[in-house]
Specification:
The protein is 24% helix and 28% strand. It has eight helices and 17 strands. Helix 1 (16-24) packs parallel to helix 6 (166-190) and helix 5 (124-130) packs antiparallel against helix 7 (222-231).
């Protein structure tokens, strides 16, 4: 069977299952592009990306290039020297200019964390949760000059669980994308998978998540707030005000979707399902919380440590 020379471009944890899958396949990974090391942590020490750490830990270590741009011939020198048949791109973080798109003889394949054309853009997982989508998935697509607009090879679907967070879906879709990638490459070589233009109907955009979106508005419905808490876990984490400080809300569930049991944000009591809070419509049960400088705690432990009677979150 044909063995390809594959270059890989990726940066965060989402890209790791795909790189591992390629390393375990019959194909040869000839080099890795990843973002430059960035300052991180309290000391702001330079930290390598997860993809770089994996690439340099293999035996033998993979060739790694970390250009800040790919717009010049000099910044593309490593990729050109690797002479890949195919470039696989997974959450790389740089827009590929036409010269890069045209470099591999078989083009550039991308794993996108949505069912294209829905949720093109930077935050498809979070936006699917915020919208209340019943299902999501991954799409293997050929990159073009547009934003996630290239022809698609295949997609793989999965339902979104009632309590799944963005972190849960991130990990599941990363694994699903890795297996779908190998299937797409095999199908492309065999001629059994054909690239198809994306339909214009159903296209939507998933803009980058901003930290300002995490502040909870208790005037929203319990259903909407449950979606926000799940969409913003693990980042930026939904938060409200409590006792003059911020309070992070990590996990919750809708107790009653239609009740109107008090002013929005009012704590109605503690039950087996969590701290029950009145919303603009419905009641939300907060199951896991975190105060500044503290570890996450269960609703029961939180209620045992603070006085909740008469409390109204968000004020």
């Amino acid at each position: 069977m044909t063995s390809l020379r594959i270059a890989f471009a990726g940066t965060p944890h989402f890209a790791l299952p795909a790189l591992r899958a390629l390393l375990a396949s019959r194909h040869r990974v000839v080099g890795v592009l990843t973002q430059p090391d960035r300052p991180a942590g309290r000391g702001l020490d330079l930290r390598a990306s997860p993809v770089k750490l994996l690439a340099t830990s293999t035996q033998p270590a993979l060739a790694v290039a970390q250009p800040a741009t790919l717009k010049t011939p000099e910044s593309r020198a490593a990729l050109t020297a690797w002479a890949p048949d195919l470039l696989v791109v997974v959450a790389y973080g740089l827009i590929l200019p036409p010269a890069v798109l045209a470099l591999p003889r078989l083009g550039c394949l991308n794993i996108h964390g949505s069912l294209l054309p829905r949720w093109r853009g930077a935050a498809p997982i979070q936006r699917a949760l915020l919208a209340g989508d019943a299902e999501t998935g991954v799409t293997i697509m050929q990159l073009d000059a547009g934003l996630d607009t290239g022809p698609t090879l295949l997609d793989r679907r999965r339902p979104i669980g009632a309590h799944e967070t963005a972190g849960d879906l991130h990990d599941a879709l990363a694994e699903l994308g890795a297996s779908a990638l190998l299937e797409a490459i095999d199908g492309l070589l065999a001629g059994s998978v054909v690239a198809r233009a994306q339909p214009t109907e159903g296209a939507s955009y998933a803009p980058k998540i901003e930290k300002s979106e995490a502040l909870v508005d208790w005037g929203a419905s319990a259903t909407q707030l449950d979606r926000r808490i799940r969409a913003f876990n693990p980042w930026p984490v939904a938060e409200t005000r409590f006792a003059g400080d911020s309070l992070k809300l990590l996990r919750a569930s809708v107790t009653d979707a239609s009740a109107r049991d008090g002013a929005p944000g009012t704590v109605l009591g503690i039950a087996d399902d969590g701290i029950r809070v009145a919303c603009g419509e419905g009641v939300l049960a907060i199951r896991e919380l975190q105060r500044p400088g503290k570890r996450p705690t269960t609703a029961r432990d939180f209620a045992n440590a603070v006085r909740l009677a008469g409390i109204r979150f968000g004020t």
